[in-house]
Amino acid sequence: METHQIERPWGETVSGSERQRTSSTMEEPICRLTPKKVAIVGGGLVGALNACYFAKRGFDVEVFETREDIRQAKVVKGRSINLALSHRGRQALKHVGMEDKIVSQGIPMHARMIHSTSGKQSPIPYGKKGQFILSVDRANLNKELLTEAEAYPNMKMNFDHKLKDWSPETGLMTFT
Ligand SMILES: Cc1cc2nc3c(=O)[nH]c(=O)nc-3n(C[C@H](O)[C@H](O)[C@H](O)COP(=O)(O)OP(=O)(O)OC[C@H]3O[C@@H](n4cnc5c(N)ncnc54)[C@H](O)[C@@H]3O)c2cc1C
């Protein structure tokens, strides 16, 4: 059993001038003066991507993932079906500089094929002519996101950490 204490962000007092200085655009760190600690539970797609966003904005980030590091694992547990990456997902990746890399590894899917019982095939396009979504290897995307997140100096990854309990009042998190 292991415990970690995180600072409660809503308990923070920020002066007016400091707030003005720190509320800048998405591209700039907002926590230059007093970096706050953020704990992210789950290093899946959302957790790893969010870790990049928080780290990019200057927070001290710790990720706690119950699985072992999937980049080292012989067998990756969890969902294995490929992911269909659309415009929204690409935008999310773009803001952490990963869109081109992931898109280059994807397989374009222009339409889904409907197979009727009579054997007739009817394609239903995913978009207008020339538009497509991308079939992406889910485990690889997760690995790439973890590697990207880990590259930030203000990031710490904790694998084999399962959240058992946490207290919103004290910020105390208990892991097994
Ligand atoms: C069959 C299927 C197909 C899908 N296809 C698509 C698709 O084509 N396109 C698309 O955009 N979305 C798709 N989705 C949705 C997509 O998979 C999810 O939106 C996405 O995986 C959510 O990411 P997540 O990080 O929240 O969850 P997950 O990817 O499940 O990650 C959660 C992580 O948290 C960890 N965890 C869980 N409990 C704890 C704990 N107590 N302590 C520490 N760590 C913990 C897990 O080990 C895991 O690594 C699909 C989902 C399914 C089931």
How do the helices and strands follow one another from N- to C-terminus?
EHEHEEHHEEEEHEEE
Question: What is the class of the largest domain in the CATH system?
Answer: Alpha Beta
Question: How large a portion of the residues is in β-strands, by DSSP E?
Answer: 25-35%
Class computed from helices, strands and strand pairing = alpha+beta
Molecules bound to protein: flavin-adenine dinucleotide
Q: Which residues form runs of ≥5 with pLDDT under 50?
A: 9-26
Give the rounded overall mean pLDDT. Answer: 86
Total count of strands: 11
What quaternary form is this? single chain
Order of the strands making up the biggest sheet: 1-11-10
Radius of gyration: 20 Å
**Number of discrete domains:** 2
Essential attributes:
176 residues; alpha+beta; 2 domains; three-stranded antiparallel β-sheet; 5 helices; binds flavin-adenine dinucleotide; NADP; FAD binding
